[in-house]
Write a structure and sequence with these properties.
By secondary structure, the chain is α/β, with parallel strands linked by helices. Helices cover 36% and strands 18% of the residues. The protein is built from 20 helices and 20 strands. Strands 3-4-5-2-1-8-9-13-14 form a nine-stranded mixed beta sheet, sandwiched between helices. The longest helix is centred in the N-terminal third of the chain and has 18 residues. The N and C termini lie far apart (71 Å).
C-alpha cells in the first residue's frame, strides 16, 4: 500500500467527497398531443411473472406511457404454480368475461382477470394450462411440451381482449389500437390480425409491432403443427421455415418447421428491438439466427430503442439493500458500500484495490467462461473479484474451485440474491459483462447509475449504452456532465456532438471475444483506477449523470408507435 500507485488509488477512493455538481432531477413528464390505445402482449410481466429483462420492460414501460397520456393494457398469462408468488395475483379480480377461441382443432375457453396498477390495465389470461408447479416455461425435467399450445392460446386471447373486456374506467379498447407483440410467445398476434381479423373488417385501423428481445428463441415446432395454430391454411408459407442441410437431423429430413417469429416479422407493421446496435446485428448472418434476410428486407421498418431502468428501485441515494446512500454529488457513501461488501465477502478491506463484479446467468450468452479462461492472469493482478449467478454446472463448479484456490481474492455466489445484486452493483468499482451477444442488457445500466464502470464485450446494446473511455479527455466534472447530457439528446446538434466527444467516457468495450482483449480492458481500467483518480471520478460522474430512466426511453418508443399509425397496414 506504500507505493505511489497505491497512494493515488487511496486518494481516488477517499476523494469521493462533494464536488460542485447537482444531481439531474427526474425528467419532467409531458403529456402527448396524440394519445393512443396500446396493448402489450407478453409471456411475462414484473412483478407477477419474471425470468428476465422482458418482464421488466413490460412492467415499467407501460407505466411511463400512461404518464404520457396513453391508454395502456398489458396482457399476460395468469401463472399459478402453488408457490408464494401466487399471492401477487390476489388483487386481480375476475372480469367474468370469457372468450371462445379456436386452435389445436378445438374450441378453447379463456377467462380474464384485471388489475389496475399505476394507471395501467394489467389483464391476466386464465386457463388451466397456466396452472402447474414449476417455472414459467419449464420445470426440472425440461421445457414444457405444450408451450406452443399455451402461447398460441395467449395470442388468440390477446386479440379478443380489446374487443370483449368492458373496463369500468373507459369501456373496451376497441379496434383502433396498437398491439406490441413481445418475442415469439406473442408472435401470433400480428399473424392473426393480418390473416384472420382484417379479412372480416376487424382491426383494419389497428397496427402491430413485433418487439424482439432475443431472436435466439423463435417458437419453432414441426411443420405438421401449423394446423394447430388457428391460422388460415393459405397463410402457411408465412410461417414455414426450412433449416439448411447442415442443421437437419438426417438425409431424409427436409428441415421444415413452423417458425412463429418468422410469421411475426413478415406480418407486423413494424419491427422493434431493444437497442439500435442489436437492430443492426440481427440483419447479419451472425446475429440473425436464420432470419437475417427477412429482417434485412424490412430494415426500413426496423427500429432499435434502448431499454430504460426503474430509477426508483435502482437508486443509490435510497437503496434499502446498501450500506450507505450516495449520489453523483457525493460518492463518500459508495466507498462505505465497497468497504461493507469487502467485509461481507471476507476480503481484506482496502480502498486502493479495484473490486470487480459479475452478475448474470452462467451460460454461453453471458460469457462467464471468458472469465474462467482468464482467471489465472486475472488473479495475478492486484484485484478482488466477486461473481453472482447460476446456470451451467461446469461454470458453477469453476466459481467454487476459484474461491478455494484464490480464497483471498475471489468469491463465487452460486445462485441469485436480489439484495446481493444491489450490494455488488453499489460496492464494486468495475462490472464485468463479457456477453457474446446482448440485445440490450440491464446490468450495465444499473452499474453506471451507481458509479460502477462497466467492462463489456462490444456487442448489441452494450455498444449503444457504454461510451468508450477517452484517455485524452479533460477530467473536469462539468465536461463529464455536459457529455452525458449531450448523449441523451434525441438528435445531437454539432455543438452537442462536440460536447459528447470531449467526455471521459463511461466504461471499456473490448473485441474480439478473447482473453487477450478482455484482459487488456481489465488492465487498462485497473491502471486508471490506481493512477488517475481524477479521471476515474470524471468517468463516474459522466456515467451517473446520464438519463437512464424509462421516461427517456418511452418517448423514443412513442415515436415508433406514431410512425406505425402513420403508415398503411403492412398486410391487409
Amino acid at each position: 500500500v506504500g507505493t505511489p500507485a497505491a497512494a493515488a488509488a487511496a486518494t481516488a477512493a477517499t476523494a469521493a467527497g462533494p464536488v460542485t455538481l447537482m444531481a439531474r432531477p427526474r425528467p419532467v413528464v409531458e403529456k402527448t398531443t396524440n394519445p393512443l390505445p396500446i396493448v402489450f402482449v407478453t409471456s411475462e410481466v414484473a412483478p407477477w411473472s419474471k425470468t428476465g429483462g422482458l418482464a421488466d420492460v413490460c412492467g415499467s414501460l407501460p407505466r411511463e406511457l400512461v404518464a404520457r397520456g396513453h391508454r395502456v393494457m398489458v396482457i399476460a398469462p395468469r401463472y399459478l404454480n402453488n408457490s408464494p408468488n401466487d399471492r401477487l395475483y390476489d388483487e386481480a379480480f375476475d372480469t367474468n368475461t370469457t372468450s371462445k377461441v379456436f386452435c389445436f382443432k378445438d374450441e378453447q375457453t379463456v377467462g380474464f382477470f384485471h388489475q389496475v396498477k399505476d394507471g395501467v390495465d394489467f389483464v391476466f389470461v386464465d386457463h388451466p394450462s397456466y396452472k402447474r408447479e414449476g417455472g414459467l416455461y419449464g420445470d426440472k425435467f425440461g421445457v414444457y411440451g405444450d408451450n406452443q399450445f399455451r402461447y398460441t392460446l395467449l395470442s388468440h386471447a390477446a386479440c379478443e381482449a380489446p374487443l370483449v373486456i368492458n373496463f369500468a374506467n373507459g369501456g373496451t379498447y376497441g379496434q383502433d389500437i396498437v398491439f406490441i407483440a413481445n418475442d415469439w410467445h406473442a408472435g401470433l398476434v400480428p399473424v392473426l390480425v393480418a390473416s384472420k381479423y382484417r379479412k372480416f373488417g376487424t382491426y383494419n385501423n389497428a397496427r402491430t409491432i413485433t418487439a424482439i428481445h432475443n431472436i435466439m428463441h423463435q417458437g419453432i415446432e414441426p411443420h405438421t403443427t401449423f394446423s394447430n395454430l388457428g391460422v388460415p391454411d393459405d397463410w402457411y408459407k408465412t410461417m414455414e421455415y426450412q433449416f439448411p442441410e447442415h442443421l437437419r437431423a438426417h438425409e431424409l429430413d427436409l428441415g421444415l418447421v413452423v417458425n412463429i417469429m418468422k410469421g411475426a416479422i413478415l406480418t407486423s407493421d413494424r419491427v422493434l428491438t431493444v437497442s439500435q446496435g442489436y437492430a443492426e446485428e440481427i440483419i447479419t448472418e451472425v446475429g440473425g439466427k436464420g432470419l437475417e434476410e427477412l429482417l434485412a428486407a424490412r430494415r426500413h421498418r426496423l427500429d432499435g430503442v434502448v431499454n430504460g431502468i426503474d430509477t426508483e428501485e435502482w437508486n443509490p441515494a435510497a437503496d434499502k439493500f446498501c450500506e450507505a446512500p450516495f449520489d453523483v454529488t457525493d460518492l463518500a457513501g459508495k466507498l462505505e458500500c465497497k468497504r461493507a461488501l469487502q467485509r461481507e465477502l471476507g476480503f481484506e478491506v482496502r480502498d486502493d484495490v479495484p473490486l470487480l463484479g459479475f452478475i448474470g446467468r452462467l451460460d454461453w450468452q453471458k460469457g462467464p467462461d471468458l472469465i474462467r479462461d482468464s482467471i489465472h492472469e486475472l488473479m495475478s493482478e492486484d484485484v478482488q473479484v466477486v461473481m453472482l449467478g447460476s446456470g451451467l454446472p461446469e461454470l458453477e463448479q469453476f466459481m467454487r474451485w476459484s474461491e478455494s484456490i484464490y480464497s483471498e481474492k475471489f468469491r463465487g455466489w452460486v445462485g441469485f440474491s436480489v439484495p446481493m445484486s444491489h450490494r455488488i452493483t453499489a460496492g464494486c468499482d468495475i462490472l464485468l459483462m463479457p456477453s457474446r451477444f446482448e440485445p440490450c442488457g440491464l446490468n450495465q445500466l444499473y452499474a453506471m447509475r451507481y458509479g460502477t464502470l462497466p467492462i463489456a464485450h462490444a456487442t448489441g446494446g452494450l455498444i449503444d449504452t457504454i461510451t468508450r473511455h477517452n484517455p485524452f479527455a479533460d477530467p473536469n466534472p462539468e465536461i463529464a456532465v455536459a457529455a452525458a447530457m449531450a448523449r441523451d439528446s434525441e438528435s445531437m446538434s454539432p455543438e452537442e456532438q462536440a460536447a459528447a466527444e470531449l467526455g471521459p467516457g463511461t466504461g471499456w468495450l473490448f473485441s474480439p471475444m478473447e482473453t487477450n482483449s478482455f484482459m487488456w480492458a481489465v488492465k487498462n481500467a485497473t491502471q486508471l483506477y490506481r493512477e488517475r483518480p481524477e479521471m476515474w471520478r470524471a468517468m463516474q460522474i459522466q456515467a451517473m449523470s446520464q438519463d437512464l430512466s424509462w421516461t427517456h426511453a418511452s418517448m423514443r418508443w412513442e415515436k415508433v408507435l406514431e410512425w406505425a399509425k402513420i403508415d398503411p397496414p403492412h398486410c391487409k
